[in-house]
Every structure is written in structure tokens, then in C-alpha cells.
């Protein structure tokens, strides 16, 4: 069972707004077993809309259309849908009552142009819009279902959750979908692919492997489609076990959570607390942890010690260490992490110091040079990294590298 999503609006194509509707819809459709084959964004142009509808109908069982349902002249989706199905626009009484209700609620005069919102193609069932005046429309034509909804995200989401998704599940039979996600850290996508190529080649047609790379980490997502949930789960688990054995993954995650959330869960399960001492990352690592509810059970806090003075006064880094070796050095990061453990009284600590850029680099310490230390429970790791020249990426890469090192430390502690 395949679906396509068509978003209509010049404002999307010129970059005035970001199409968040498609990503949300694709996620929700995947949950019920409806796979999205293609997503298209097209202009408010009659010919483009007609062509997009015809092409989508040749590929998909269900087509979702958002946008172009407003009362203004450039909102031509309804008129074009009527042309596509070769029917007239007719007034729908239920839709008109809803328009009148909305205007009465806000004590606004109902204009003739607003009443036109109740005009819909004669062959549609309306999807009532309780949050706006533009009704959604459901069509069943030549074995293909078409669902047209407003482009306003909260209106579309409400209609999908309350009406469209329940109706789809009642109308169509969907396969079972099983997902399992493995989170890998510290190895690039191409290296992973080379290491597991034989396992990937062994996958049957109903099981797909997706690579989802991000800075410093790659998620491997196994997706299985079929009728028997127990059989699918068994197959996915078997392939996941082969991947884990081959790669030696630091994490196996059945839900879509981030690396730092996985680390927080591990530390909380072991009653460990954590503090950080940041320099070049400027609090970004702290942000990654504290964005998660409940992080206070583990994360005690930290220091953003940019200057020599704060490294000395807050973390206890020796003045002679800073002047002899510099802020970006193995010696300094070692004293930073030791100071965090001592002064913040945490079980574990992370320290980061480096040259984020674009300026500040030297011949022996170019932009992108970062020292990271993790320590606690009688163990420690210190490592030098050379990243790139872009400040934002260096900050993010430093944080991800620190998380990876923390994971290694936790693994060592548990041995």
C-alpha cells in the first residue's frame, strides 16, 4: 500500500515557509503501514496540479494534498480538483454551517467570499475542519483515494488525527510494519556499509535497511513489512543481532532517542551523576543533556570556562599549566575534568577545550583542534581531535565526540 504527498503553494517553492506538513504526515502514515512513495511540492498553477495528480495516481493508492484551499484568488486547489474529476463545485451545507459557526464564534461579519469556502467538488465527502473555514475533501476515484486538506499545520494535523487516519484504517487493510533502530557512534556511513554489505545483501525483499547519518553517528534502521507481526519481529531481531555482532555497537535502541538521552538513561540506571567543564563548546554539551525532561536526576551542572581566569578559579587549573601548555592542551583538559569531578562532586565528568574557529588557530594548534577528557569511577580517557574549519560544525562535532567518549568510559566502568 503506497501513498504520495503533494504540497501546493508558491510560498514553499520560494523558501518563504518550510514544508513541515509532509514530514509529519509521512511519520503518521508509516505508523499505520502506509508507505510514502514520493513527496512533491508544486506551485499554485492549474497545469502543474493536474499533472501532479495524474502522475501520483499512476503510482500510489492514496494521495494526500495540502494547501491552496483558502478564500483568495490564488487558492485554486478546489477548482482544479473539480476539473480533474470533471465535476462541478457545489455548496455543501455542512461545510457552510461550519463556516458560519467559525465567524459567529469570533463575532466577525461573514462575507460572500467566505461563504465560497463551502463550495466543494460534487463527488467529494467533506472532512470537517473544526479549527478553520476550509473543509478537507475525501475522494475515491478509479480505485485511488485522494485526501485534500488545508496547508495550515494545526488544522491539517487535527483533521488527520481525528478523521482521516481513522477512516483510512477502517477503509483499507494495511500491512504490519516493524522498525528496529541501532545507533552507531564514531564510524562513518561508508565504512559501516562496507563492513555489513553481506548482511545487507541477505535481507529479504520485505525487510529494508536505511542509513541515517548525523555528525559522528549513524543510525541503522531495519524496517519489515508483512502480515504476521510475530514473524516479522523475529526476522528483524535476527538481522539486528547479526549487525550488532559484526559492528560491536555501543547502543541498540528500539525507539528513536538521541545519543545523549541513551547515555542519561544508562547513568540514571547506575545512579551516576555527571558534570561538565566546557570551553570551546560554550554550553552546547550542557544543552544537549538538559533539553531532556528528567535530566536533573543525572546532570548536576557545569562551567563554561572560556578564559584562563575562570579555568583557574572555577576548575582549579594551575596557572603554570595554562601558560606553559596553553588552554588547548592535554594537560589543561586533564586538570579541567579533574576540577569538575572535585568541585561539582559528580561521579563522572566531561571536559572540552579547543579552537572552534574561524580564527585563533596556530601552526601547531590549527582551527578545529579539540582536546576532550572524560573521567570518573577511577577511570579516565583523554583524546585529541582535529575537526574542520567551520565553527558551528566544530562545536557540534566536539559535543558528539565527548558523548562517544563518555559511552566508552561507561563501558569500561561496567566491565
Terminal Cα separation, in Å? 47 Å
Q: How many helical elements?
A: 16
Summarize the biggest pleated sheet.
6 strands, mixed
CATH superfamily of the largest domain: MoaB/Mog-like domain
**What is the gyration radius calculated from CA atoms?**
28 Å
Helix content: 40-55%
In what range is the share of β-strand residues? Answer: 25-35%
Shape: elongated
Query: What is the number of independent domains?
Result: 3
Strand ordering within the main sheet: 2-1-3-8-7-6
**Number of β-strand runs:** 17
Overall CATH architecture of the largest domain: 3-Layer(aba) Sandwich
The CATH topology assignment of the largest domain is Molybdenum Cofactor Biosythetic Enzyme, Chain A
**Quick one: CATH class of the largest domain?**
Alpha Beta
The low-pLDDT segments are none
Mean pLDDT rating:
95
Structural class: alpha/beta
Description:
The chain has 3 domains: 2-171, MoaB/Mog-like domain (Molybdenum Cofactor Biosythetic Enzyme, Chain A, 3-Layer(aba) Sandwich), CATH 3.40.980; 176-253, Alpha-Beta Plaits; 259-414, Alpha-Beta Complex (Maf protein), CATH 3.90.950.20. 36% of the residues are buried. The chain is built from 16 helices and 17 strands. A hairpin with a 2-residue loop joins β10 and β11 (217-226). It is elongated, with a radius of gyration of 28 Å. The mean pLDDT is 95. The protein has helices at 10-13, 21-31, 46-57, 77-85, 93-105, 112-115, 153-171, 189-195, 197-201, 229-247, 259-269, 284-290, 308-313, 319-325, 330-344, 391-414, and strands at 2-8, 35-42, 62-66, 89-91, 119-121, 125-127, 136-141, 144-149, 176-185, 207-214, 217-226, 251-253, 274-278, 299-304, 348-354, 369-376, 379-386. The protein has 415 residues and is of the alpha/beta class. α2 (21-31) runs parallel beside α7 and α11 (259-269) packs parallel to α16. The strands form 4 sheets. It has a 6-stranded mixed β-sheet, sandwiched between helices. Strands 14-13-15-16-17 form a 5-stranded mixed β-sheet, sandwiched between helices.
Amino acid at each position: 500500500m503506497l501513498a504520495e504527498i503533494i504540497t501546493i503553494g508558491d510560498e514553499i517553492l520560494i523558501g518563504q515557509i518550510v514544508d513541515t506538513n509532509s514530514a509529519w504526515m509521512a511519520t503518521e502514515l508509516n505508523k499505520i503501514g502506509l508507505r510514502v512513495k514520493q513527496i512533491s511540492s508544486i506551485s499554485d498553477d492549474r497545469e502543474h496540479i493536474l499533472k501532479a495528480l495524474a502522475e501520483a495516481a499512476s503510482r500510489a493508492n492514496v494521495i494526500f494534498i495540502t494547501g491552496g484551499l483558502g478564500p483568495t484568488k490564488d487558492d485554486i486547489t478546489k477548482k482544479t480538483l473539480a476539473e480533474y474529476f470533471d465535476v462541478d463545485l457545489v455548496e455543501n451545507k455542512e461545510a457552510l454551517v461550519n463556516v458560519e459557526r467559525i465567524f459567529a464564534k469570533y463575532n466577525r461579519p461573514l462575507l460572500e467570499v467566505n461563504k465560497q469556502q463551502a463550495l466543494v467538488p460534487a463527488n467529494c465527502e467533506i472532512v470537517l475542519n473544526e479549527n478553520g473555514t476550509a473543509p478537507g475533501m475525501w475522494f475515491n476515484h478509479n480505485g485511488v483515494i485522494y485526501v485534500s486538506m488545508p496547508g495550515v499545520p494545526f488544522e491539517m494535523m487535527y483533521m488527520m488525527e481525528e478523521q482521516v487516519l481513522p477512516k483510512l484504517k477502517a477503509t483499507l487493510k494495511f500491512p504490519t510494519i516493524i522498525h528496529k533502530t541501532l545507533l552507531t557512534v564514531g564510524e562513518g556511513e561508508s565504512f559501516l556499509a562496507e563492513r555489513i554489505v553481506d548482511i545487507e545483501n541477505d535481507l529479504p525483499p520485505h525487510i529494508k535497511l536505511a542509513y541515517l547519518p548525523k555528525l559522528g553517528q549513524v543510525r541503522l534502521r531495519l524496517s519489515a513489512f508483512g502480515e504476521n507481526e510475530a514473524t516479522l519481529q523475529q526476522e528483524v531481531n535476527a538481522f539486528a543481532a547479526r549487525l550488532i555482532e559484526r559492528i560491536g555497537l555501543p547502543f541498540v535502541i528500539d525507539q528513536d532517542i538521541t545519543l545523549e538521552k541513551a547515555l542519561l538513561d544508562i547513568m540514571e540506571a547506575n545512579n551516576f551523576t555527571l558534570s561538565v567543564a566546557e570551553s570551546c563548546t560554550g554550553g552546547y554539551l550542557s544543552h544537549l543533556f538538559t533539553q531532556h525532561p528528567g535530566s536533573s536526576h543525572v546532570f548536576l551542572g557545569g562551567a563554561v570556562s572560556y578564559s584562563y581566569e575562570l579555568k583557574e578559579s572555577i576548575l582549579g587549573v594551575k596557572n603554570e599549566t595554562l601558560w606553559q601548555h596553553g588552554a588547548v592542551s592535554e594537560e589543561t583538559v586533564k586538570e579541567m575534568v579533574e576540577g569538575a569531578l572535585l568541585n561539582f562532586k559528580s561521579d563522572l565528568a566531561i571536559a572540552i577545550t579547543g579552537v572552534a574557529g574561524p580564527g585563533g588557530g596556530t601552526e601547531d594548534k590549527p582551527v578545529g583542534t579539540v582536546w576532550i577528557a572524560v573521567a570518573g569511577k577511577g577511570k579516565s580517557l583523554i583524546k585529541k581531535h582535529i575537526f574542520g574549519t567551520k565553527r558551528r560544525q566544530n562545536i557540534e562535532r566536539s559535543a558528539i565526540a565527548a558523548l562517544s567518549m563518555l559511552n566508552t568510559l561507561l563501558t569500561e566502568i561496567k566491565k
